[in-house]
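In the design runs reported in the main text, the only information available to the sequence generator was the tokenized backbone. The following block is the verbatim input for one such run; it is reproduced so that readers can re-run the procedure and compare outputs position by position.
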């Protein structure tokens, strides 16, 4: 999230503000766009965090990941803190020409003191071999 051009890949629900030099708050359905040089042997990976304060309010949360509108995986987080998500993406789901859209939808939002609705903290996201 701290790459100088990271915001060019944001579609929606990701804060333009970089916090602590490494992470950004998300909204309900953070969505990113990617181009991939190959389609084979790729996984989608994300490093994220569910803050203790938000989990005290929401309880456990479930996040559903999708690639090009195809469900990739669903994870329930029962404990706050840092988490890593990674799932292989079938080559047939990916486009070599054009953008690949990845979303992560959280089931419950945290209401901050300033009445802003927040999802989770996103540190890193992308395709890996």
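Verbatim output:
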């Amino acid at each position: 999230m701290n790459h100088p051009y990271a915001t060019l890949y944001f579609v929606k629900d990701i804060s333009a503000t970089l916090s602590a030099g490494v992470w950004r708050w998300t909204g309900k359905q953070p969505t990113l766009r990617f181009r991939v040089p190959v389609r084979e042997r790729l996984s989608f990976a994300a490093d994220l965090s569910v803050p203790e304060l938000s989990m005290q309010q929401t309880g456990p949360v479930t996040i559903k990941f999708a690639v090009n509108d195809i469900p990739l995986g669903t994870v329930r987080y029962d404990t706050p803190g840092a988490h890593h998500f990674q799932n292989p993406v079938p080559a047939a789901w990916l486009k070599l020409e054009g953008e690949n859209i990845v979303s992560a939808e959280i089931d419950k939002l945290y209401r901050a003191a300033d009445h802003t609705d927040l999802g989770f903290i996103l540190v890193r996201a992308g395709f890996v071999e």
